[in-house]
Every structure is written in C-alpha cells, then in structure tokens.
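Q: what sequence does this backbone want?
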C-alpha cells in the first residue's frame, strides 16, 4: 500500500489560546480551524494541529500522521514488520480516519486516510 507522505503533525498543549498565539507567530499565519479542543494551521497542505490535553489519544509528545491510501492494509504491513497497534482506526470527521501504531522502541506513528 502507498504512503503518500506526512500530512499532519499534532502537538498536545495545555492551553489552546496561549499555544495558538505562539504557533501563529512561528508559522506566520492565523489558524484555519479554531475550536475549544483543536486549533489547526494549514501550511500549504501540511496540517499543524494543536490538541487540548493530548486529545482523545492522550498524547504527551507530538505525533506525525502519514497519509496512506489504505489504512487497514498499512496497519497490517506494519504489524507484520514488528509494529504494534496503539489506537485502532477511528473516524475523526469529514471522511477522515486515523490510527496510531508504535515501532519496536515505542515511538508513536500516526496514520490517516481520507475516504
């Protein structure tokens, strides 16, 4: 299955308002999405997101999400190669599904597919 490249990087934050200002200064633009639980910046196709409290996954460090054409098949490939499913496939809205897996050292790898 094809991996297209990095599509999204999520950063867990404790205060969205404060973090939003810092990332806006860093990225030189205002957020495209701004809600009570998520702030997202579009960097010419790369999404840089701020997730309050680590989001539903409880992230404690940034997670990079790789865009794939078939998320279930890619997970199977990664597991066969020695990875482990951390969070199974779930819908996050707009036809997008995400999942996370870990490599043998416990590094978290995000996967996403737009259906």
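A:
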């Amino acid at each position: 299955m094809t991996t297209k490249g990095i599509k999204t990087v999520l950063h867990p934050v404790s205060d969205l308002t404060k973090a939003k200002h810092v990332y806006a200064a860093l990225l030189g633009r205002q957020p495209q999405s701004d809600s009570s639980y998520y702030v997202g910046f579009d960097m010419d196709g790369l999404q840089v997101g701020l997730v309050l409290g680590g989001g539903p996954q409880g992230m404690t460090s940034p997670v990079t999400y790789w865009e794939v054409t078939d998320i279930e098949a890619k997970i199977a490939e990664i597991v066969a190669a020695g990875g482990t499913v951390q969070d199974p496939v779930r819908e996050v809205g707009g036809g997008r599904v995400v999942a996370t897996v870990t490599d043998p050292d416990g590094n978290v790898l995000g996967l996403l597919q737009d259906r």
